Amino acid sequence: MCGKRYTRSLYDPCVYFSRLSDGEYIYLLLYVDDSLIASKSISAINKLKNQLSSEFEMKDLGEAKRVLGMKIDKDRKKDIVSLTQKRYLQKILQKFNIQSDPMSISTPLTPHFKLAATLSPEVSRRS
Questions:
Q1: Among 51, 50, 85, residue whose Cα is nearest residue 67
Q2: Which residues of the chain form beta strands (DSSP E)?
C-alpha cells in the first residue's frame, strides 16, 4: 500500500491512510483476512476496492456491520459510530460461568481508589 500513495500509521501497523484531493482521508484497516475501508468519499472507497480486487481475491461484503469481532453501530441522524464487543464479553462470561447481570458484579477496587486520565508523550505532542 505504501507504493500506492498510502501511509502506514505510526500507531498501528495494520492501518493505512491517504489524504484525498478534497482534504478528506481514506483509511484501510488490514488484519489477516479481514479488512475495512472508511472514508466520507464513496467514489474513493469504490476506487480502492477496485484496485484491491484487481490484485487480490476478495469478497465485498457491503457496508460494515462487524469487524474483528466488534459490532459496528451507526446513528446517521446523530452522526455517531460506536463499536461494541457485547457478544464476545457474553462468551467469556459464559465460559467462566459468571453471571452476566451487571448488578451482580462488585467493583474490584477499593472505594477510595481514584482514577486519573494521563496523556502519553505522543498524545500530548499531537495536541
A1: 85
A2: 7-8, 15-19, 25-31, 34-39, 66-67, 70-75, 80-84
Q: How confident is the model at residue 101 (pLDDT cuts 50, 70, 90)?
A: low
Range name among 14-23, 42-51, 80-89 with the lowest pLDDT average:
80-89
8 Å CB contact between 64 and 72: yes
Q: Are β-strands 70-75 and 15-19 bridged in parallel, bridged antiparallel, or unpaired?
A: unpaired
Delimit the domains of the chain by residue range: 2-126
* Three cell numbers, residue 77: 441522524
Order of strands, edge to edge, in the sheet holding 34-39? 7-8, 15-19, 25-31, 34-39
- Cα angle 101, 106, 109; round to 5: 145
pTM, entire model: 0.65
Type of residue numbered 77: K
pLDDT at 98: 78
